[in-house]
Amino acid sequence: MKRLQVILLVALSSTLLLFGCGKEREEVVEPIVEQVVEDEPETIEEDVEAAPEEETQEDLPPQEGMVRSRVTNEWVTEEVNNTRPVTVMMPNTKTAAQYGISRADVLYECNVEGSITRLMGLFQDWSDFDRLGNVRSCRDYYVYWSFEWDAFYIHYGGPFYIDEVINRPDTEDIDGLSSSNFWRANDTGSSTDNAYVDTEGIKADINKLGYSMQYRDGYASEEHYQFAPDNAPNTLDQYSDAITAGKIDMSPTYPVTNCYFIYNAETGLYDRYQHLSGTADGPHIDKANGKQLAFKNVLIQNTYFEVRDQKGYLAFQCIDSTRDGWFFTNGKGIHVTWEKTSDYGPTRYFDDNGNEIELNTGKTMVCIVEDGDSFLVDDVKIN
Predict the structure, then answer these.
(1) pLDDT of residue 56
(2) 110 Cβ contact list (under 8 Å, min separation 6)
């Protein structure tokens, strides 16, 4: 019996020694495992910290005091960004002499009577114009597009259809017919396409009329367009149904202007051309500086319209929702819908998934198309 107890004690001791050895071996291995685990988080932390540095560098202004433009997303001074812009009505006929038009940050084009188009340029920085125009007459639907920027609306008279909106107390327009700061020049051979204004004249009229140079509270959204970051531009590659768009031809909807846009792969812009009735086909040029009009973004906006009278005066429904359109940038295009919900509300554009689109930094062209009209993209008809 004693011998059996001794054997059991020996066996138990051996077992305890084995467990003890196991613990010692685990304690030796554990520090090695811990060392490996500690190394991995350090590498991850370095990668995570690197990304914000790139974003910070990307968003650093080229000069102190500059901010991103609410109109183009380009760098501008705070003074420019906080000063209300101007919108200017311009003719687009063979007798038009367009001075300063290439500096428009957003350019609107729409039909008026007789199938001719009129242009409205939005200028965020209008601080140094010595000649801007020709300035032409108002059409009331343009006023609503001007409203959404809280801009000073500059025109030269207009038909009686404009009276209702122009005479509103919140409409801050500058009319060349009642101003002594506009002048006419005999340089176009036209009795109508010859009126101009300059920066000093605009400022004088603003002061005379008692307008504020600062944005009015609650009138215009500070985030009118949504913009993609410069270091991650919107290529439209994320859309499987995006189409290639080397040429956007608006001739079917603008039969007198016959304007079109050709994508310039070197600049990443859409250069504007037109073949006005009675003129040669060629680049659309600013007479002030000889520059061709070019745009980073082109928006096509199908809009309900009516013919008002036998003279062909038109009315467009500017406030609407879920209307069709197209967005072109970087040589591609996608179908969109647009909406504008109030007079001063911005026109917003959405992809087919319901997400608001991001424009790319730069100038934008907005082409208003009458419902039922079409245009061409690389010679393919788009309704």
Answers:
(1) 52
(2) 117, 118, 139, 141, 142, 316, 367, 368
Report the pLDDT value the prediction gives residue 140, as an integer from 0 to 100: 98
Residue 244 is encoded by which pair of tokens? 């290639």
The DSSP element (H or E) to which 360 belongs, if any, is none
Structure tokens at 107: 């350019």
Contact 262, 377 (CB under 8 A): no
Domain boundaries 75-382, corresponding CATH code: 3.50.90.10
Give the ranges where the chain is alpha helix by DSSP (H).
2-58, 78-82, 140-147, 163-166, 199-209
Q: What is the DSSP letter of 130?
A: S
Place of tokens 């997303």: 73
Are 69 and 296 within 8 A, CB to CB?
Answer: no
Q: How many CA atoms lie within 13 A of 268 on its CB side?
A: 10
pLDDT-derived band at 239 (thresholds 50, 70, 90) equals very high
Partnered with residue 301 across adjacent β-strands are 325, 368
Q: Please, is 128 exposed, middle or buried when counting C-beta atoms within 10 Å of its C-beta (0-12, 13-18, 19+)?
A: exposed
Task: Measure the CA–CA gap between 377 and 382, rounded to whole angstroms.
Answer: 7
Q: 10 Å Cβ neighbour count for 75?
A: 16
Q: What are the φ/ψ torsions at residue 116 (nearest 5 degrees)? A: -85, 160
Average pLDDT over residues 133-162: 98
